[in-house]
């Protein structure tokens, strides 16, 4: 299980700082050392990555960072994730049974995908059939994909606070199209909480991939 923030080592705090500062040359070797040499829990390393993305997102919203920084941050985290994910899969062994279908995407106006990618991966190895439709997904695309894929759960991802309105708009469109009774909606992202869930009209929110898997298990009646 990932460690609380107050229990991070100095090197773990350094990794978060380097990632947030776009210091790719130092951050990537340290992350790879954690994963491959020090055998740090890969889920904890991904939690450190998400902490760094919290900082990046705040800097973007305050006008300190712009789109190139978001792209670079995403590339760094994808590189770390490519090393971490096989380690998670090897430890968990994966799951062959398909419990149900989950459609997931980042709402329009938001280009973040590291959290969505981790949730997709964790659902996959826990036996769910997942369709990831990418980032900056317009409302019409969500509706089109829902009608084609027929999921039991729809996951809306969004990291920036501007995504809250996009989530609300997307869920309202599900209601307007008459398709909302057919599935549950979960939302997730860096700043999501119960207030945001109520604002958007989602059924539930998750603060990390483990919670997202738990929600899907509960809704589909899958034993833990």
Instruction: Give me the count of strands.
Output: 5
Can you give the helix content as a percent range?
A: 55-70%
Q: How far apart are the termini?
A: 16 Å
SS class: alpha/beta
The tally of domains stands at 2
H/E topology pattern: HHHHEHEHEHEHEH
- The side-by-side strand order for the widest beta sheet comes to 2-1-3-4-5
Gross morphology is globular
Q: Number of helical segments? A: 9
Nearest-integer average pLDDT: 90
Fraction in beta strands: 5-15%
Q: What is the annotated CATH architecture of the largest domain? A: 3-Layer(aba) Sandwich
CATH class of the largest domain: Alpha Beta
CATH topology group of the largest domain: Rossmann fold
Radius of gyration: 17 Å
Largest β-sheet summary: 5 strands, parallel
CATH superfamily of the largest domain: Cobalamin-binding domain
Uncertain runs with pLDDT below 50, 5 residues or more? none
Question: What can you see in these coordinates?
Answer:
The protein is an alpha/beta fold. It has two domains: 5-92, Methionine synthase domain (Methyltransferase, Methionine Synthase (B12-binding Domains), Chain A, domain 1, Orthogonal Bundle); 101-220, Rossmann fold, CATH 3.40.50. The protein is built from nine helices and five strands. It has helices spanning 10-20, 24-36, 42-61, 67-92, 114-125, 139-149, 163-177, 194-200, 209-220, and strands at 101-106, 129-132, 153-157, 184-188, 204-206. The chain has a five-stranded parallel β-sheet, with helices on both faces. The longest helix is centred in the middle third of the chain and has 26 residues, at 67-92.
């Amino acid at each position: 299980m990932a460690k609380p923030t107050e229990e991070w080592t100095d090197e773990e705090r350094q990794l978060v700082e380097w990632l947030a500062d776009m210091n790719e040359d130092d951050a990537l070797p340290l992350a790879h050392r954690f994963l491959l040499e020090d055998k740090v829990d890969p889920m904890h390393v991904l939690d450190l990555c998400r902490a760094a993305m919290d900082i990046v997102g705040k800097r973007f919203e305050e006008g300190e960072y712009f789109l190139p920084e978001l792209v670079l941050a995403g590339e760094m985290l994808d590189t770390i994730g490519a090393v971490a994910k096989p380690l998670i899969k090897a430890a968990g062994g994966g799951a062959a049974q398909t419990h149900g279908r989950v459609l997931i995407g980042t709402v329009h106006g938001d280009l973040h995908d590291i959290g969505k990618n981790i949730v997709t991966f964790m659902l996959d190895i826990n036996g769910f059939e997942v369709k990831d439709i990418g980032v900056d997904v317009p409302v019409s695309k969500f509706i089109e994909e829902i009608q084609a894929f027929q999921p039991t759960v729809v996951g809306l991802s969004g990291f920036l606070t501007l995504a809250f309105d996009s989530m609300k708009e997307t869920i309202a469109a599900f209601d307007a199209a008459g398709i909302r009774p057919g599935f549950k909606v979960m939302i997730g992202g860096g700043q999501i909480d119960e207030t945001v869930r109520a604002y958007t009209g989602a059924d539930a929110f998750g603060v990390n991939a483990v919670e997202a898997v738990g929600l899907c298990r509960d809704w589909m009646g899958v034993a833990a």
